[in-house]
Amino acid sequence: DKKPPPPEEQEVSEEETPVVPLDTVFRMQRHVNNRVLDQVKQQVDYFRKRATRRIEWRLEEASMMKRCFPRGAPMRSQEFDAAGIEGMSLLFFPSGYDSAFDGWCSAFLYAPQGA
Questions:
Q1: pLDDT value, residue 41
Q2: Cβ(4)–Cβ(23) under 8 Å?
Q3: Burial bucket for residue 95 (CB in 10 Å: 0-12, 13-18, 19+)
């Protein structure tokens, strides 16, 4: 066994204590449980979806869309989650749904069955 060399002798005043190197090892280990991280992310997403109370879908130049979409032909938004309901989307009929009055458009909110 080799012992560390003795500390160098230093002049020590009465107020100072000698500095002696420590013969120890400090080890730090970090453990990450990814399963818990995934569960926390799921819960955060769940509460974020429940907190969504307003959805905005901007349609540029909607008056021009009547030419491209005949009566009964919808535009559909991307699916979104809001108020705790997953998989909703907006349907917009620029020329109106089949039963709409002439000159009127129609809009619907689609939600999964049972929502």
A1: 86
A2: yes
A3: buried
Q: Given the structure tokens 């997953």, which residue do they identify?
A: 86
Is 49 exposed, middle or buried (CB count within 10 Å of its CB: 0-12, 13-18, 19+)?
middle
**Alpha carbon distance 27, 29 (integer Å):** 7
The residue ranges of DSSP E strands in the chain, in sequence order, are 75-76, 80-82, 85-93, 106-110
C-beta of residue 66 within 8 angstroms of C-beta of residue 72: no
Q: Look up the pTM and report it.
A: 0.56
Region of residue 48 (left: phi > 0; alpha: psi -120 to 50; beta: else): alpha
The parts of the chain modelled with pLDDT lower than 70 are 1-17, 22, 25-26, 31-33
Residue closest to 92 by CA, chosen among 108, 71, 81, 80: 108
Distance CA 55, CA 80 (A): 9
